[in-house]
Amino acid sequence: MISVKGLRRRFGTIVAVDNMSFEVGKGEVLGLLGPNGAGKSTAMKMLACFLAPDSGTASVCGYDILKKPVEVKKRIGYLAENAPCYNEMTVAGLLKFVCDARKIKGAKRKAALDRIVPMCSIESVYHQTIDTLSKGYRRRVGLAQALIHDPDVLILDEPTDGLDPNQKHEVRSLINKMASEKCIIISTHILEEVEAVCSRTIIISKGKVLVDSTPEKLKDKYQMSLDEVFRAITQAE
What we know:
This protein is α/β, with parallel strands linked by helices. It has a single domain, classed as P-loop containing nucleotide triphosphate hydrolases (Rossmann fold), CATH 3.40.50.300. It has helices at about 40-45, 70-75, 90-100, 105-120, 135-145, 165-180, 190-195, 215-220, 225-235, and strands at about 1-10, 15-25, 30-35, 55-60, 65, 75-80, 155, 185, 200-205, 210-215.
């Protein structure tokens, strides 16, 4: 469902993403790992058509991110690292605005809201304004807007950032439930999260793919915990 071919992006003299290539299929949950500044968020922004690559390209559900960005956006749910929300809007107002943008109307809108509000556990804050929400609830609202149109592909940048342990468990369970029917890429710094939800992991540093494997195979190969494997690979680079 996602095919990445030679993606490259510079910011001045800094190469954020350097000739990155990989593929992710339906039923896979790919954990994108790397130290701060490795290029994870930049890669995700390019896949979500929020940032154009300097060279290379990618396709999502068969649509090229450069030639058919609108078709790509229709098929993805994207949760940015710092998902912007309109502070003066209520949660209900924001989700209805997203439905308008995605042309979800009438009975389909009601069904989408009835599905997503309990799924993301935001019933108790549904009529509150965004500026009154905790970081954890803002993150849940961000996840709700990414899921409301039931996309085939999910691109989630730090999806459990700011959540308490119970909320993290809920989100991980939700990802596991969706995994078989979707193609999912997750960026996270939480190694236990990778083990809990990811069927595969790519470790990157300085914009380059260093490892593409599964958490279990990495632990078996290095005879270390995943945390130790991550440090060994990224510090050797």
